[in-house]
Amino acid sequence: MNKLLVLYTSPIRKTTSASTLALDDFITNYKHTNPEDEITVMDLNEDVALEKNLTSQNFLDYYGDGVADKYIEIFNKHDKIVFATSTINFKPSPVFISLINRITIARKTFNMVFDAVQQKTVSAGKFVGKKAHVLITMGSIPEEDIKKHMIDSVKIPLEFIGFDVSVTLLEGMDVGGSPEKKLTRDQKIKPYENRIADAAIKF
């Protein structure tokens, strides 16, 4: 039995968020494939501590207020983590970025070590052996370099602290609607149901 942590991060209201619905569908399929697994669900938007940005004014206190330790402990207790994030200005959701900032700490969640084989310094992350999957929704169907940028923006930080990361990109969420009649979130997700199910089954 594995322990799965489910993290919602979209700033869009739950009733209209496509990424939230995508994660709901992911969990439904995951439960069907892994009925014995223990699942913990958290909405990071509900943690006011993650609203705090790292600045020169709070740098000394930012990592000492217990928030990082709380999430590191939560991560330690789970084998797998799945996130869902909307794309906000070509970046993951602010609360996703805030969480990454909180838990990426030298000598706590990563160490820089010299790899004799590669002959270079690399990160040795704390969470080696744990898996993470990220569902990303995008309103448009962007060029390949932008898709890569979005995937890298979630994948690289998580790999840096040791996770084995996979990503499902769901683009074109706002393609097909009109100013007069926007697509519902169910209509947005419908074309990707099989892709979401496949990702959940493989995870």
UniProtKB/TrEMBL annotation:
Lineage top rank: taxon: Bacteria
Membrane-crossing residue ranges in chain numbering: none
Family matches, as Pfam families: Flavodoxin_2
Residues of the Flavodoxin-like fold domain: 3-190
Record-given protein name: Flavodoxin-like fold domain-containing protein
